[in-house]
Design goal:
Blueprint (H helix, E strand, L loop, with lengths): L7 H9 L5 H8 L4 H11 L11 H21 L5 E5 L8 E6 L6 E7 L18 H18 L3 H4 L6 E7 L7 H12 L4 E7 L9 H14 L5 E2 L2 H5 L4 E4 L23 H20 L12
Parallel strand pairs: 3-4, 3-5, 5-7
Antiparallel strand pairs: 1-2, 2-4, 6-7
Helix pairs in contact: 1-8, 2-10, 3-5, 5-10, 8-10
The chain binds zinc ion.
Length: 299
């Protein structure tokens, strides 16, 4: 198991930068749509399941997600935003990547997984696995944050120093396979991922301490306290990663990975807090000076 990372630059940014754009972030937050957020969670958890392979419902859910993302991007009138279906897996469900190009290839990633599962019978693709908290709420969080971020003229017109990506992972519940494929690909291409935040319903052991400190600073600035921990596929490739959870550990939904993880058990105000966190994370790191310039750019 790799050692826990601790990127010093994020400790530095946490001290210097986190409040720099707080007024812009707060302005976006005032326009969030609680009803839309709740409706997305209901709609996405209405599918019988979103199991990654061998399930007709999963494919329907992924198509719903792809359409919702495209509608959100189109309605924003932003320029240059790309919605890519990442479909190089040996299973049915694709991951989806939204890229908001900045002025450099340095990339900030926020991610959430789209698949759902119930245990212990998770190999049966007809199971009822609504996965509202885990992780329709994470998917809705990202879409609402995307909608808000694209209202900002600098992001909408590509004037932000760093590139921002929203990832919707397939096949997380079967061992982080969807995110692993993407970060394997990014690593082999030498992609410069500077920070990754995942909104997910389970806890893992891979975290960049510097980035996590940065996220804590954002929470202090624009959101209410919640537990912050980590995520693995990005961190395994040396990409600094952090993760947020829907509530304090031990106080989370008991329904995760059961047929009872339904939309009517969701605390929508917790979800809304996560939207504000994702916006703060994306906005501040979008503008943050991250690492040295690539020397080859100057030759
Ligand atoms: Zn799960």
């Amino acid at each position: 198991m790799p050692a826990l990372g601790a990127s010093q630059e994020f400790f530095q940014i946490a001290e210097d930068e986190t409040t720099r754009h707080s007024q812009s972030v707060k302005k976006l937050i005032t326009q969030l749509d609680l009803l839309s957020l709740h409706t997305m969670i209901e709609d996405f958890s209405d599918f019988q399941n979103r199991f990654f392979n061998g399930s007709e419902y999963s494919m329907k859910a992924s198509r719903w997600l792809y359409t919702k993302i495209n509608q959100t991007v189109t309605a924003s009138n932003a320029t240059g935003v790309a919605v890519e279906v990442f479909d190089r897996a040996g299973w049915d469900q694709p991951s989806i990547i939204v890229s908001i190009p900045g002025m450099s290839a340095k990339t900030i990633v926020v991610g959430a997984h789209q698949d759902s599962i119930i245990r212990p019978c998770y190999q049966v693709p007809r199971d009822y696995a609504p996965g509202a908290d885990d992780n329709a709420s994470g998917v809705a969080t990202l879409i609402e944050a995307l909608r808000a971020i694209l209202r900002d003229p600098d992001f909408a017109q590509g004037h932000v120093p760093n590139t921002l990506e929203f990832h919707f992972y397939a096949a997380e519940e079967v061992g982080l396979q969807g995110s692993k494929q993407i970060f394997d690909s990014y690593s082999s291409q030498g992609r410069e991922v500077k920070a990754m935040l995942e909104r997910i319903g389970v806890l893992t052991d891979y975290v960049d301490l510097g980035l996590t400190e940065f996220v804590r600073m954002i929470i202090t600035t624009v959101s209410d306290p919640t537990l912050v921990t980590n995520h693995a596929s990005a961190q395994l490739h040396g990409y600094p990663a952090a993760m947020t959870f829907e509530s304090k550990f031990g106080d989370h939904s008991r329904f995760i990975h059961t047929s009872l993880d339904r939309a009517d058990t969701i605390n929508i105000n917790h979800v809304l807090q996560h939207v504000t966190l994702v916006i703060g994370f994306a906005y501040e790191l979008g503008f943050a000076p991250l690492g040295n310039e690539d020397i080859t750019e100057e030759l």
